[in-house]
């Protein structure tokens, strides 16, 4: 993942970074508040040899530098800790005293630094004072050759004991700064990892490359349409969603000039991608362009058209296919130029009904009577109904929900369409968020603007004489 991709992932999931930052800062604050302050007393020793002459002094300096490293270990030894614990009056045993002492030999020098850290200022200073006295005595004792009274090494305290009035722990500013940095890194890392592991379709280019068919429209996400799925473009005015669907209508009219589409199957890979609402809105927008449109609900498992349009759905396509009613009895007008054929009762054998010769005859009949026939088909992956219905139409439109449908599902859906020799006209990337590059977010359309178009509402009086074969009148009970 390159830096622009990482920044894009962090921007889309900024709340992850904010959550991780809040968590680490809260944890750091709790730990800092509940940590007992500790104070440090520092000392610096100078180690020398009592030699005279330049040559002897040089050799003594080299000797002392080598010994200083050993003295650093001696400062934290058990022997010295026992001496300090016995005389400092600190009430600590030798092990606890040793844990409070840290010694460091400065490289290329004869200086030795020691730090005594304790929760009490007074005890830290007392331990450091006792340490300085006993350390010098211990070194002289160890470095005095047998039978001589003079030590080969001399240790002098040159700095300290110096008590730092500011606690060395906890470091509040440092802790919070490190926690903030850690939180940002964790949040950004999680966002980047989620982006890498996310195999859903995010962009039109990715969908086009995967399916091998053009993306005819990218429909932006509409919160109101999600809350009320039956919300139609006639109620949305010139919202970005409505304009994107108009673009889809236009692209379908010019997708193949030599082979115009008269029967269109609208399907998706899985459920919940917005295929039924897309079919409804597309049918309404074709009537807006002056077309005579028939909308068929061929989803015989989970029909939605009757619910979205507010019409009676108990009788419809399955009723006609079963020979229980005539077309004129079940076709229902909805506004000017739009007729709807609901699904009817749910049959036990939807695949057989959609693949029957009677269904093919109906589609041929509708193709002659209407300018555009839109068929809402079942999803392609759960059942075979969608592929069967798509094979009967002039072309299929694959609706894909952005950031929900995976690449594997889309590829399998496209393969299912092509496996029955159906014509895949193109795709629709549905519910695209502005962060994914929605081209309509810059237009400034007012989703709440009143719709000035007339005639696009449900009406019980459909102009039946506009059809080549006049349908039978629809009763008032059907025209809801």
From TrEMBL:
What's the chief localization of this chain?
membrane
Q: Where is the protein localized? A: Cell membrane
Q: Which residues cross the membrane?
A: 14-33
For this protein, the record's InterPro entries field holds: Bact_polysacc_biosynth/exp (IPR050445), LPS_length_determ_N (IPR003856), P-loop_NTPase (IPR027417), Wzc-like_C (IPR005702), YlxH/NBP35 (IPR033756)
A Pfam family found in this protein is ParA
Q: Can you tell me which family this protein belongs to?
A: Belongs to the CpsC/CapA family.
- The protein, known as: Polysaccharide biosynthesis tyrosine autokinase
Q: Which organism is it from?
A: Pilimelia columellifera subsp. columellifera
């Amino acid at each position: 993942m390159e830096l622009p991709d990482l920044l894009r992932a962090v921007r889309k999931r900024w709340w992850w970074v904010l959550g991780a930052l809040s968590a680490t800062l809260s944890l750091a604050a709790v730990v800092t508040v509940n940590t007992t302050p500790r104070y440090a007393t520092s000392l610096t020793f100078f180690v020398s040899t009592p030699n005279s002459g330049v040559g002897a002094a040089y050799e003594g300096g080299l000797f002392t530098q080598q010994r200083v490293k050993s003295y650093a270990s001696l400062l934290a030894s058990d022997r010295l800790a026992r001496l300090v614990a016995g005389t400092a009056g600190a009430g600590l045993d030798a092990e606890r005293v040793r844990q409070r002492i840290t010694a460091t030999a400065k490289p290329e020098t004869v200086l030795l630094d020691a730090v005594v850290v304790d929760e009490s200022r007074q005890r830290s200073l007392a331990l450091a004072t006792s340490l300085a006295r006993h350390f010098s005595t211990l070194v002289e004792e160890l470095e005095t050759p047998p039978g001589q009274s003079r030590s080969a090494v001399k240790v002098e305290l040159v700095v300290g004991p110096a008590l730092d009035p500011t606690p060395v722990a906890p470091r509040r500013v440092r802790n919070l700064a490190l926690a903030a940095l850690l939180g940002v890194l964790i949040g950004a890392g999680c966002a980047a990892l989620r982006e890498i592991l996310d195999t859903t379709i995010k962009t039109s280019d990715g969908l086009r490359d995967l399916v091998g068919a053009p993306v005819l429209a990218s429909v932006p996400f509409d919160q109101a349409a999600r809350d009320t799925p039956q919300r139609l473009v006639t109620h949305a005015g010139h919202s970005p969603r409505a304009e994107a669907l108009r673009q889809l209508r236009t692209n379908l009219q010019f997708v193949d000039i030599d082979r115009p589409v008269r029967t269109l199957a609208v399907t998706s890979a899985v459920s919940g991608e917005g295929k039924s609402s897309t079919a409804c809105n597309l049918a309404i927008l074709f009537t807006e362009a002056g077309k005579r449109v028939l909308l068929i609900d061929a989803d015989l498992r989970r029909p939605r058209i009757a619910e979205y349009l507010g019409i009676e759905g108990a009788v419809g396509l399955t009723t006609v296919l079963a020979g229980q009613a005539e077309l004129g009895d079940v076709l229902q007008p909805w506004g000017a130029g739009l007729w709807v054929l609901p699904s009817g009762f749910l049959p036990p054998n939807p695949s057989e009904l959609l693949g029957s010769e009677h269904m093919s005859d109906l589609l041929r009949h509708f193709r002659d009577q209407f300018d555009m026939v839109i068929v809402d088909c079942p999803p392609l992956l759960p059942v075979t109904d969608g592929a069967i219905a798509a094979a009967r139409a002039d072309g299929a439109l694959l609706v894909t929900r952005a950031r929900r449908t995976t690449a594997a599902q889309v590829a399998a859906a496209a393969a299912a369409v092509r496996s029955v020799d159906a014509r895949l006209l193109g795709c629709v990337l549905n519910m695209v968020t502005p962060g994914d590059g929605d081209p309509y977010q810059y237009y400034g359309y007012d989703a709440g603007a009143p719709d000035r178009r007339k005639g696009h509402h449900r009406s019980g009086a459909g102009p039946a004489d506009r059809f080549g074969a006049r349908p039978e009148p629809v009763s008032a009970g059907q025209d809801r």
